[in-house]
Specification:
It comes from Methanobacterium lacus (strain AL-21). With about 290 residues, the protein is mainly α. It contains 9 helices and no strands. The chain has 2 domains: about 130 residues, no CATH class; about 120 residues, no CATH class. About 70% of the residues lie in helices and about 0% in strands. Helix 6 packs parallel to helix 9 and helix 7 packs antiparallel against helix 8. The longest helix has about 50 residues. The chain starts with a helix and ends in an 8-residue tail after the last helix. About 20% of the residues are buried.
């Protein structure tokens, strides 16, 4: 009886999709272990020596990385063989009936109650995990279907159009609905890039609007630090002046207020600003004379 109870307990312990390690499970295993040894060493077996093997000394001896392997590859077979040996002994000597004392009855009852509680807990936990898995699968399918619809209708994610430097610093903030922070990070990235170019070319460490004025301004006798277009032509000069105003204005009107004041902007406003920062980055990519080493 007790060896069969031991097997039932181990099947309950290792079954149910996951293993629940706790002090009580190890305590129950040791109580069964000791009880079986007590019975084997008792008077009823004194004329029939029986050597009973156990799959584990205690449950804490299991491999923590893959505890179920000790049961699947060895423990189950050993228990089955031991139970057969015990049954053969009863057939050989004749089955005797012994009344359980109160202590043994309480032990069996407490173990059965524990196994029932653990089984119910594992069922509930598996249902909870299954629900989470279904929700995640549904969410993944929704994202996949949304992407498919966008592709079929020639709709693209606006981030596909944004400069990679801006994507790196702004996308996660934007997706977390930190729109002002995403915009501020975008224009900080523009500022950092221009600052690095200017410092490499003229050795001055500038910032913000003053940096942009210095980087893109030119005269009849001197070229700008960053040349964006062909200044030998009127159109090129107009482009250079226009972008200087865009770079300077972005620092003055967008980056600085976002950095120094608690200004909230909505999603659409953030997208417009991010596109502007991206356009400035792409213009730097296409600059005629630039040094970012």
């Amino acid at each position: 009886m007790f060896y069969q109870l031991l097997i039932d307990f181990l099947e309950n312990f290792f079954g149910g999709g996951f293993i629940l390690f706790d002090k009580e499970s190890n305590r129950i295993y040791l109580r069964l272990y000791n009880k079986i040894n007590e019975i084997i060493g008792g008077n009823c077996f004194e004329e029939n020596l029986v050597a009973v093997d156990f799959p584990f000394i205690h449950l804490r001896s299991l491999d923590p990385d893959a505890p179920e392997t000790d049961w699947i590859y060895g423990g189950q077979q050993l228990c089955g063989e031991q139970l057969s040996s015990i049954e053969d002994l009863f057939i050989k000597t004749g089955e005797n009936v012994y009344e359980l004392d109160e202590e043994d009855s309480n032990l069996i009852s407490s173990i059965n109650d524990y196994m029932e509680d653990i089984s119910n807990y594992k069922k509930e936990e598996n249902l909870r995990l299954l629900k989470i898995a279904k929700e995640r699968t549904k969410h993944a399918n929704t994202l996949s279907n949304s992407k498919k619809i966008m592709e079929e209708n020639n709709i693209i994610d606006f981030w596909d159009l944004i400069h990679e430097n801006i994507v790196k610093v702004s996308k996660s903030r934007f997706n977390n609905e930190h729109y002002a922070d995403a915009v501020e990070s975008a224009f900080k990235e523009v500022n950092i890039r221009v600052k690095r170019i200017v410092e490499n070319k003229i050795g001055q460490e500038l910032d913000g609007k003053h940096l942009m004025d210095t980087a893109f301004s030119f005269s009849n006798t001197s070229n700008p630090t960053i040349i964006l277009d062909d200044l030998s032509k009127k159109t090129g000069k107009n482009i250079q002046r226009g972008y200087k105003q865009l770079f300077s204005g972005s620092m003055q009107a967008i980056r600085n207020p976002k950095a120094h004041e608690n200004i909230e902007i909505n999603k659409n406003e953030a997208i417009h600003f991010i596109f502007l920062a991206s356009s400035l980055m792409f213009k730097l990519d296409n600059a005629i004379e630039i040094n970012e080493d």
